[in-house]
Design brief:
- This protein is α+β, with helices and mostly antiparallel strands and 257 residues long.
- 39% of the residues lie in helices and 21% in strands.
- It is elongated and about 75 Å long.
- Helix 5 runs antiparallel to helix 6.
- It has 2 domains: 156 residues, Trna Endonuclease, Chain: A, domain 1 (3-Layer(aba) Sandwich), CATH 3.40.1350; 60 residues, no CATH class.
Length: 257
C-alpha cells in the first residue's frame, strides 16, 4: 500500500462488524445482557447478566464466528464449523461452563448458538468418549440449526443462565482445579495397571475405593479404560460418573450420568 492509498476494508472485516451488530442487537440491556469487548483475545464479548433490572456480576464469555458457506451434517440438522480446541478450552474455564459459541451465517444473516458445555458433550458422544481431539489444534464442532437466535430464544437463554447462576451448587468442572478438563490429565504411575486388570479392579473394588475416598487411585484406573467401554458397562459407567462428579469434572460426568 502506497502513501496515497487508503486502507481497505475487506469482506472479513465487514462480516465481523455485521455479526457483532446482530449479536448486540439481540443480546441487549433490554433483553437482560450487558455486552462489552474484553481486553484479552480469548473471546469476542464478555456479557454480564441483568436480573430484574439489576447488575448481577455474573459473566459469560461469547465467541462469534462468521461463515459464508455453511456446512451442514447429520441430514442437514447440524451446522459444522472448524473450531480451535484451545478456544473451546477457554470457553469451558469459567465457574459455570456456559460460555456461548455463536456462528453467524452471512448469507442468511442469522445467528446460531450453543453453550460450550453442550458442544463439548456432543463431541464426546460423537466419538464414544474418545478425547484424542484434545491434542489437535482444531476440531469440527456441531450446532443444531434449531438453535437460532431470536426474540424467544434470547429469553430462554437469559432464563437458563440466571437459573444456572442462582443454583450455587451447579459449579463448573474446573472450580476445584487449576487446569481445565481439556488440558487436565492424570499422571499415571510407572506401574500403571493393564486394561484387563484395571477393569477387574474397578468392578471388584471400585465402589469400596470411592467410599474410602481413594479418588486418585480410582482416577488412575479409570484413565486406563476407554470411555466407550466404561459407558457400555452400567456399573463402570455409574462409577465413572460419580467419580468425575466428585472431582468437579461435571461436564465429563454428564457423559455417563
Amino acid at each position: 500500500m502506497a502513501f496515497g492509498d487508503s486502507p481497505t476494508v475487506d469482506r472479513f472485516s465487514e462480516n465481523e462488524d455485521e455479526s457483532n451488530s446482530y449479536f448486540t442487537l439481540n443480546f441487549s440491556e433490554r433483553n437482560g445482557f450487558l455486552a462489552s469487548k474484553p481486553k484479552d483475545k480469548g473471546c469476542d464479548f464478555i456479557v454480564e447478566l441483568i436480573n430484574e433490572h439489576k447488575s448481577t456480576n455474573w459473566w459469560i464469555p461469547v465467541q462469534i464466528k462468521s461463515i459464508e458457506s455453511p456446512t451442514l451434517v447429520d441430514n442437514g440438522t447440524l451446522l459444522s464449523y472448524q473450531f480451535e480446541t484451545s478456544r473451546l478450552q477457554y470457553m469451558l474455564r469459567p465457574i459455570l461452563p456456559v460460555g456461548l459459541i455463536i456462528i453467524y451465517s452471512v448469507g442468511e444473516k442469522k445467528l446460531y448458538y450453543d453453550f460450550a458445555e453442550n458442544i463439548y458433550k456432543r463431541l464426546l458422544e460423537e466419538r464414544n468418549g474418545d478425547r484424542s481431539f484434545h491434542n489437535r489444534e482444531h476440531v469440527n464442532i456441531h450446532i443444531p440449526l434449531d438453535n437460532l437466535v431470536g426474540e424467544s430464544s434470547v429469553k430462554e437463554i437469559h432464563s437458563f443462565l440466571i437459573r444456572r447462576h442462582q443454583n450455587v451448587g451447579d459449579y463448573s468442572p474446573f472450580i476445584n482445579s487449576d487446569l481445565p478438563t481439556l488440558a487436565r490429565k492424570v499422571t499415571l504411575s510407572t506401574n500403571a495397571p493393564s486394561l484387563d486388570s484395571s477393569i477387574n479392579t474397578l468392578k471388584e473394588r471400585g465402589d469400596e475405593m470411592f467410599n474410602n475416598n481413594e479418588i486418585p487411585q480410582l482416577m488412575e484406573l479409570l484413565e486406563q479404560v476407554e470411555w466407550r467401554l466404561l459407558r457400555e458397562d452400567p456399573q463402570l459407567g455409574l462409577l465413572a460418573g460419580i467419580t468425575y462428579w466428585a472431582t468437579g469434572m461435571r461436564v465429563d460426568a454428564s457423559f455417563f450420568l
